[in-house]
């Protein structure tokens, strides 16, 4: 079989940012009808490479070749005109506008004198939405959609033009399983139409399910490409991080302590209702459910960010009233929030200051912040979590998504909490670091911490938790003890099929 | 149940409810305090209200676009004054002496052109240098005012043309000329913002500039067009107003920017951009004008007027927030 | 030989753009008008800038916390009028105390409205601009206030010198040092940057956004009261509108210094440079005998050039990359 | 009878505030008069709107303190057409509007400027420096009629009476004591010899005086206009030479009286100037200290 001509080739792409060589001579080709995985650790340069492809960044050196013709793209529209569509890692939507306007953002259909052709716009959009099997229509405002549905709006953009290449940068980070299935259908449709798909994800099972070829970047350098069927998780991991990864979970052999946190019949408005559970010190409790199940709201209530409407919270057997995050912090509760950019980080602030923010009142020398102590904290967690940054002075906004997430985790670990709540802790984190974080969570538990892990990834909750609380629509449907959980009964519990517990 | 309905109503159109409240209040208070026999809600008085809202209102439409687009323009007051000077200077220029009243369209054209040009300067600087529009226009607020003084020394520029005054004072279907301009501008801007690609893109840019850039929307030219539009509208406002009054002081239009921004924000436009309604902006303008008129009607003195206007602004903002609170279980951020 | 590549030059500007601009302007003026850099003139410019400067220090706090304060001019008129009026009635010491208390009360009110009630600061302070003006007029009956005893020691704050340095300059310098340290070195300062940079993230980190904003306005009103004190002491009399319009001048100085209106960026040192720069520009143009309106235009150009240089340095490119 | 007044900008200085108070009091003292007192806040548009409102309310007479003497002409015409007599107060409207008003009542600002020039010239002559003296001029807020008229009167008259005195610099002090002090500081740095300062009002004059005192420059002759209480005190202290005596209370009363006379059908002179005499250290004992 002779290889078809690539729809797209990248040759020796170099891209530098002040202080960072993000891409260092990367070459890559995408064939028509293939799903090409791009993998690499956080900060390896995947998003940057794709932004070069999407016309958002211009390369310092090297060439982009489309259909064997070198091209220069000075903007996203030029890339789109060449048939390159880019679905961003971070949501890139105008929330106040309708779904249709977002799907066709930048190229609304017109009918003379710059007037928008609403009829055509809604018709075309609804046709695309129908393909995606989503439960909303073209006129819905994006701000009224859940995060997952917003992601689907992004994905809908891939279908607006006759694309030659579609790039998905971590599209599944906030999708539920049902939506993932739709996405994969879309991808195989594209494939059937000879479109080349570049697919970035840190989730191995997806990579092996849908991709044909895998290319790997490490520190901005191209490590090579392999056919997916010729390799396995271990092989890819080795290419990515240069060593093997031990993915087995060591059985916890530590004793569980007393009940550290107990929640009785807790409710808050419409977000969740009559929720009860316990977490012992030394235990990791996973919360699993669909987006909108109310898990985040429980965490926020425990952390003093929401008022409860009824029920009580007990810490070490005592009823407590958490009025504010300050309160929660003083009582030894930490929360790694779900939205790192919105809730976790001050993007314009440097890494060190972000990391020590919650304890800035406590690390002082006289009336002043003790900068030395801060740097020590930063160094410690940079090393233990392997955070890639040129130094503590770097603005967090310039770090790659995964490294930003690590800063948030470090920020809350350094608080030395008794109860640690992590909400989607590994969203957008590479396999290596992910397993590091899982190990870390286990280790923290073994030291006596009570840990709550909220996650929408089934493998993650199953891997890391001692017990799993399943939620559906603001209620706890079932609590699984260690050993009794299977994929099947978990799916049942979170989809409202099984009876309420 | 009933209280919910009230809330829904309030949410849908808070500014119009506020206007209604003002009308009722001043009518009632006026019947005790006013020296006039005429009712506050007299038809003629309401027609005057619309007319008097025009100078600020026309510019406010431009400000609404600018703010929806995510920018702000502090230089409109100075642009207003420059356009007025151009208008009046052109009319008194010996160059056009032979033309009789045909000088009027020329003067109007010249004033509108200059306004648009000044807007273009702001837009171009903001676009090409990347300096924030707040700073660019804070600077040009000063700079344009300097140009005003350069133009006419420190004296008023005057030219009374009675044909023009009669035109400006005319009433058609009961509405004054200025009111017609205000209504037409409102309609046009409403159409622009809700029906055209430029308008929708302006919303998108204000809402999420990065997303707009990523989607290939050319942010710069849109911004530039919007600044030209507000420049044009500031000049149009000057043209409408000074056609009637015929003389401009170099300090005219000072502080207009603040009142205009206030009106736009009262109308519910977010200062951060991306959302806002043209019709509510008209509401904001009318609400402020009504407040001034009403306070005059009931005989409030200067210090009271200042106190009340300031407090009302804050109160409206407070009520608006109370209405939009979802419940005590809301996320506390 | 010193040779800088364009890139290096731009990067240098990014760090010290405003300072570089400042030095250039000073040189130009000094060459054009010899008296410009005479000790007398320099001292007199700094002394006149002290009032704007002291207020700019407070506004820097407010701006870094992500808010605006347009009420300072109006509030400064209020302080000045109150302290002058009370001076003759209850004596200088009590007058000063009372004036500071009242001004801080106004600051606390704004802090409450913006910090705790989360109302938009632009509109709140615009409203307060008008309301406080009304308050001042009611208080004074609209009349000028004058101290009858012109030899009162009260003139110390505005007219005296200590070791050859005018007291207003000393107050400005001390306050700048104190507030500079608070903003850059203390936990409170760090929180202000966090709240201004991302209020939600700050809340999630256990920082009370409301409290932080509240104290920023309190500091701002303290600075306003100090400015009012210097003003009152300098002329021992005042009209009701003495501070009118200063809010924009102060804001211009703060922005010229490089504080971002979006919050989260700006320093006291840079604000001081911004203040001095505005002061020297105005003075330089005055000495060159330019008409005030030419000064307007030149100030416009300089503000935009300075801010442009500053951000061009930060992004490493002269022109904006915006399509 | 109901009389409506729209004033220029009440809060801005104590002359206008005192006028406002005096007017209200005078109106209240007269049981036949109901007064609707409005303030345009310096904004022409607002003033025109107020005239329209007064017409709409059907007042018997309108008194206007123009924010801009030209711009209000059409509004005044409207009042005339509605059969309402208009009296202009304090600063006149332009000639184009004379057909539409019943009378003007107020000071003559051009004459005031001229008188200030004469005060200054006389003093220089008595000091024997009339052939060499150098004067700096601090004007009011640019663009305000009163400011421009006084400046015009001064600049025209000075060369007539003292042809060898030179005005070496002019800058606006915006009716503001502090601003004026700053301007004067710069003048003092720039010019080694300044013999006289003419300020558009005493508020600014005293600001300039403060600057001179702080710089230790004695012997400068300060002349202002609108004698404020501070100016009067400085004169009494021998630091300030002269000014123009102008009472806002007289101003207000004259306006109201003119309106009443017009309504009562009395014959009033069209230009109803009230006198604003010179006041200097020499004759100040003839005048009481101004109340504002
Ligand atoms: N605008 C920028 N300015 C400075 N550095 C940047 C910028 N954008 C990216 N970088 C740096 O370039 C490198 C590559 O980042 P990139 O976002 O491409 O990583 P990634 O492979 O997509 O990682 P992740 O899996 O975490 O999303 C990182 O070191 C990042 O800090
Ligand atoms: N049906 C819905 N329609 C629109 N928005 C929704 C809906 N359900 C939830 N959301 C929004 O989606 C966001 C995420 O949902 P939420 O935090 O309630 O769920 P969760 O159980 O924490 O899920 P996850 O942590 O997986 O996101 C919230 O901001 C919520 O307001
Ligand atoms: Mg990425
Ligand atoms: Mg969640």
Automatic annotation (TrEMBL), chain A:
Domain ABC transporter: 8-244, 242-498
Keyword Oxidoreductase: no
InterPro entries: AAA+_ATPase, ABC_carbohydrate_import_ATPase, ABC_transporter-like_ATP-bd, ABC_transporter-like_CS, P-loop_NTPase
GO cellular component annotations of the record: plasma membrane
UniProt-listed SUPFAM superfamilies: P-loop containing nucleoside triphosphate hydrolases
Keyword Zinc: no
Topology in the lipid bilayer: Peripheral membrane protein
Keywords linked to the UniProt accession: ATP-binding, Cell membrane, Membrane, Nucleotide-binding, Repeat, Sugar transport, Translocase, Transport
Main location: membrane
GO molecular function: ATP binding; ATP hydrolysis activity
Subcellular location: Cell membrane
Protein name (database record): Sugar ABC transporter ATP-binding protein
Organism: Marinomonas hwangdonensis
Phylogenetic lineage: Bacteria, Pseudomonadati, Pseudomonadota, Gammaproteobacteria, Oceanospirillales
From TrEMBL, chain B:
Cell division in keyword set: no
Subcellular location: Cell inner membrane
Stored CDD domains: TM_PBP1_transp_AraH_like
Family matches, as InterPro entries: ABC_transp_permease (IPR001851)
Keyword Transmembrane helix: yes
Gene Ontology MF, one: transmembrane transporter activity
Annotated Gene Ontology cellular component terms: plasma membrane
Principal location class: membrane
One Pfam family hit: BPD_transp_2
UniProt entry keywords in alphabetical sequence: Cell membrane, Membrane, Transmembrane, Transmembrane helix
Transmembrane segments annotated in the record for this chain: 15-35, 47-68, 74-91, 103-127, 133-151, 172-193, 223-243, 298-319
Membrane topology: Multi-pass membrane protein
Family assignment from sequence similarity: Belongs to the binding-protein-dependent transport system permease family. AraH/RbsC subfamily.
Entry protein name: ABC transporter permease
The species this protein was found in: Marinomonas hwangdonensis
Lineage: Bacteria, Pseudomonadati, Pseudomonadota, Gammaproteobacteria, Oceanospirillales
Automatic annotation (TrEMBL), chain C:
The keyword Cytoplasm is annotated on this UniProt entry: no
UniProt cross-references to CDD domains, sorted A to Z: TM_PBP1_transp_AraH_like (cd06579)
Membrane-related topology note: Multi-pass membrane protein
Gene Ontology MF terms in the entry: transmembrane transporter activity
Pfam family, one: BPD_transp_2
CC annotations in GO: plasma membrane
Keywords attached to this entry: Cell inner membrane, Cell membrane, Membrane, Transmembrane, Transmembrane helix, Transport
Membrane-crossing segments per the record: 12-32, 44-63, 93-115, 122-142, 162-183, 212-230, 250-280, 292-311
Places the protein is found: Cell inner membrane
Highest taxon in the source lineage: Bacteria
InterPro entries, sorted: ABC_transp_permease
Primary subcellular site in the record, as a coarse category: membrane
Family, as annotated: Belongs to the binding-protein-dependent transport system permease family. AraH/RbsC subfamily.
Protein name (Swiss-Prot/TrEMBL): ABC transporter permease
């Amino acid at each position: 079989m002779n290889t078809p001509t690539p729809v797209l080739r990248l040759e020796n792409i170099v891209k530098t940012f002040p202080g960072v060589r993000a891409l260092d001579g990367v070459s890559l080709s995408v064939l028509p009808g293939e799903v090409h995985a791009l993998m690499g650790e956080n900060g390896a340069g995947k998003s940057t490479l794709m932004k070069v492809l999407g016309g958002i960044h211009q390369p310092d050196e090297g060439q982009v070749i489309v259909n064997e013709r070198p091209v220069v793209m000075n903007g996203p529209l030029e890339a789109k005109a060449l048939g390159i569509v880019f679905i961003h890692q971070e949501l890139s939507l105008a929330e106040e506008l309708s779904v249709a306007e977002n799907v066709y953002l930048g190229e609304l259909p017109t009918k003379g004198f710059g007037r928008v052709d609403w009829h055509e716009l809604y018709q075309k959009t609804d046709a695309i939405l129908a393909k995606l099997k989503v439960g909303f229509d073209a006129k819905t405002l994006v701000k009224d959609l859940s995060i997952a549905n917003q992601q689907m709006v992004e994905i809908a953009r891939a279908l607006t033009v006759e694309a030659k290449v579609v790039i998905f940068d971590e599209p599944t980070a906030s999708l539920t399983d049902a939506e993932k299935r739709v996405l994969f259908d879309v991808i195989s449709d594209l494939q059937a139409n000879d479109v080349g798909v570049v697919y970035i994800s840190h989730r191995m099972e997806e990579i092996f399910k849908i991709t044909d070829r895998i290319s790997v970047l490490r520190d901005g350098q191209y490590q090579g490409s392999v056919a997916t069927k010729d390799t396995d998780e271990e092989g890819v991991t080795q290419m990515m991080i240069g060593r093997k990864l031990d993915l087995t979970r060591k059985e916890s052999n530590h004793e569980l302590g007393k009940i550290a946190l107990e929640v009785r019949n807790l409710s808050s408005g419409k977000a969740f209702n009559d929720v009860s559970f316990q977490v012992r010190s030394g235990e990791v409790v996973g919360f699993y459910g669909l987006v909108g199940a109310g898990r985040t709201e429980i965490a926020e209530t425990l952390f003093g960010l929401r008022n409860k409407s009824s029920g009580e919270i007990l810490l070490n057997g005592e009823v407590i009233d958490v009025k504010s995050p300050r309160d929660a912090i003083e009582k030894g509760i930490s929360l790694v929030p779900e939205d790192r950019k919105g809730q976790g980080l001050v993007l314009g602030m440097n890494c060190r200051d972000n990391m020590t923010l919650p304890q800035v009142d406590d690390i002082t020398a006289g009336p002043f912040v003790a900068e030395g102590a801060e740097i020590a904290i930063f160094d410690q967690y940079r090393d233990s979590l392997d955070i890639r940054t040129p130094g503590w002075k770097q603005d967090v906004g310039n770090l790659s998504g995964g490294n930003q997430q690590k800063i948030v985790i470090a920020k809350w670990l350094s608080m030395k909490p008794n109860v640690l709540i992590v909400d989607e802790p590994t969203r957008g984190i590479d396999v290596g670091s992910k397993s590091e974080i899982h190990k870390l969570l286990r280790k923290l538990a073994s030291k006596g911490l009570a840990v709550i892990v909220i996650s929408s990834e089934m493998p993650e909750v199953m891997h890391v938790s001692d017990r799993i609380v399943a939620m559906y629509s603001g209620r706890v449907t079932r609590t699984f003890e260690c050993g009794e959980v299977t994929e099947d009964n978990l799916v049942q519990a979170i989809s409202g099929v099984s009876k309420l517990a | 149940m009933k209280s919910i309905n009230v809330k829904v109503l309030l949410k849908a159109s808070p500014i119009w409810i506020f206007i209604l409240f003002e009308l009722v209040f001043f009518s009632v208070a006026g019947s005790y305090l006013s020296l006039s026999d005429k009712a506050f809600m007299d038809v003629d008085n309401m027609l005057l209200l619309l007319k008097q809202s025009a100078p600020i209102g026309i510019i406010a439409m431009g400000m609404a676009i600018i703010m929806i687009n995510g920018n702000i323009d502090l230089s409109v007051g100075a642009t207003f004054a420059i356009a007025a000077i151009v208008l009046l200077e052109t009319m008194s220029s010996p160059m056009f002496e032979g033309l009789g009243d045909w000088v009027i369209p020329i003067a109007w054209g010249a004033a509108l052109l200059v306004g648009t040009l000044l807007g273009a300067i702001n837009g171009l600087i903001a676009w090409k240098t990347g300096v924030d529009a707040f700073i660019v226009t804070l600077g040009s607020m000063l700079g344009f005012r300097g140009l005003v003084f350069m133009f006419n020394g420190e004296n008023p520029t005057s030219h009374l043309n009675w044909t023009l005054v009669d035109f400006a004072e005319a009433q058609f279907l009961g509405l004054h000329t200025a009111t017609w301009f205000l209504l037409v501008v409102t309609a046009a801007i409403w159409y622009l913002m809700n029906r055209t690609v430029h308008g929708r893109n302006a919303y998108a840019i204000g809402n999420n500039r990065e997303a707009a850039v990523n989607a290939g929307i050319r942010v710069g030219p849109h911004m530039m067009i919007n600044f030209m539009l507000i420049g044009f509208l500031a000049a149009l406002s000057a043209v409408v107003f000074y056609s009637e009054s015929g003389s401009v002081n170099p300090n005219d239009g000072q502080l207009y920017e603040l009142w205009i921004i206030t009106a736009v924000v009262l109308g519910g436009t977010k200062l951060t951009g991306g959302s806002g309604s043209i019709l509510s902006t008209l509401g904001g303008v009318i609400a402020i004008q009504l407040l001034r008129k009403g306070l005059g009607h009931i005989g409030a003195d200067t210090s009271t007027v200042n106190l009340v206007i300031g407090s009302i602004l804050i109160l409206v903002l407070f009520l608006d927030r109370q209405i939009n609170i979802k419940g005590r279980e809301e996320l506390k951020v | 030989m010193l040779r800088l590549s364009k890139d290096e030059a731009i990067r240098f500007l990014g760090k010290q753009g405003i300072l570089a601009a400042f030095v250039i302007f000073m040189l130009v003026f000094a060459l054009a008008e010899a008296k410009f850099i005479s000790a007398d003139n320099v001292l007199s410019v700094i002394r006149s800038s002290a009032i704007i400067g002291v207020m700019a220090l407070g506004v820097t706090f407010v701006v870094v916390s992500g808010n605006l304060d347009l009420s300072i001019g109006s509030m400064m008129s209020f302080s000045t009028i109150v302290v002058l009026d009370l001076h003759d009635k209850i004596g200088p010491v009590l007058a000063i105390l009372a004036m500071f208390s009242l001004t801080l009360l106004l600051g606390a009110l704004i802090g409450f409205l913006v910090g705790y009630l989360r109302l938009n600061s632009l509109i709140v302070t615009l409203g307060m601009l008008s309301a406080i003006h009304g308050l001042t007029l009611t208080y004074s009956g609209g009349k000028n206030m004058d101290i009858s005893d012109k030899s009162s020691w009260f003139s110390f704050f505005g007219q005296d010198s200590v070791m050859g340095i005018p007291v207003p300059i000393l107050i400005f310098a001390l306050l700048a040092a104190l507030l500079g340290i608070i903003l850059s070195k203390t936990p409170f300062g760090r929180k202000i940057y966090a709240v201004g940079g991302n209020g939600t993230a700050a809340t999630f980190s256990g920082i009370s956004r409301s409290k932080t904003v509240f104290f920023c306005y309190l500091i701002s009103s303290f600075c306003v009261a100090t400015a009012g004190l210097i003003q009152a002491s300098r002329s021992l009399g005042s009209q009701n509108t003495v501070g009118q319009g200063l809010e924009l001048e102060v804001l211009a100085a703060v922005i010229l210094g490089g504080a971002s209106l979006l919050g989260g960026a700006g320093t006291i040192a840079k604000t001081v440079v911004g203040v001095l720069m505005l002061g020297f520009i105005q003075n330089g143009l005055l000495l060159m005998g330019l008409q005030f309106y030419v000064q307007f235009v030149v100030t416009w150009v300089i503000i935009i050039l300075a801010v442009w240089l500053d951000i061009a340095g930060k992004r490493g490119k002269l022109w904006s990359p915006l399509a | 009878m109901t009389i409506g007044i729209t004033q220029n900008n009440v809060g801005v200085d104590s002359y206008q505030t005192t006028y406002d108070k005096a007017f209200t009091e005078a109106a209240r003292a007269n049981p036949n008069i109901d007064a609707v007192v409005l303030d345009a806040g310096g904004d022409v548009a607002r003033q025109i709107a107020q005239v329209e409102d007064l017409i709409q309310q059907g007042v018997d007479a309108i008194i206007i303190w123009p924010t801009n003497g030209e711009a209000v002409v059409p509004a005044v015409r409207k009042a005339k057409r509605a059969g309402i007599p208009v009296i202009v107060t304090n600063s006149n409207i332009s000639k184009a509007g004379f057909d539409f008003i019943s009378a003007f009542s107020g000071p003559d600002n051009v004459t005031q400027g001229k008188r200030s020039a004469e005060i200054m010239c006389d003093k220089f002559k008595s000091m024997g420096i009339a052939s060499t003296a150098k004067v700096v001029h601090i004007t009011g807020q640019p663009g305000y009629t009163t400011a421009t008229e006084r400046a015009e009167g001064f600049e025209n008259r000075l060369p007539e009476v003292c042809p060898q005195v030179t005005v070496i610099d002019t800058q606006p002090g915006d009716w503001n004591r502090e601003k004026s002090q700053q301007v004067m500081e710069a003048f003092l740095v720039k010019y080694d010899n300044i013999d006289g300062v003419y300020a558009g009002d005493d508020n600014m004059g005293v600001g300039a005086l403060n600057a001179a005192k702080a710089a230790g420059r004695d012997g400068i002759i300060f002349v202002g206009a609108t004698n404020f209480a501070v100016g009067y005190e400085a004169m009494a202290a021998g630091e300030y030479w002269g000014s123009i005596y102008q009472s806002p209370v007289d101003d207000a009363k004259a306006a109201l009286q003119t309106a009443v006379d017009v309504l009562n059908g009395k014959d009033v002179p069209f230009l109803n100037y009230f006198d604003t005499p010179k006041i200097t250290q020499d004759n100040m004992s003839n005048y009481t200290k101004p109340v504002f």
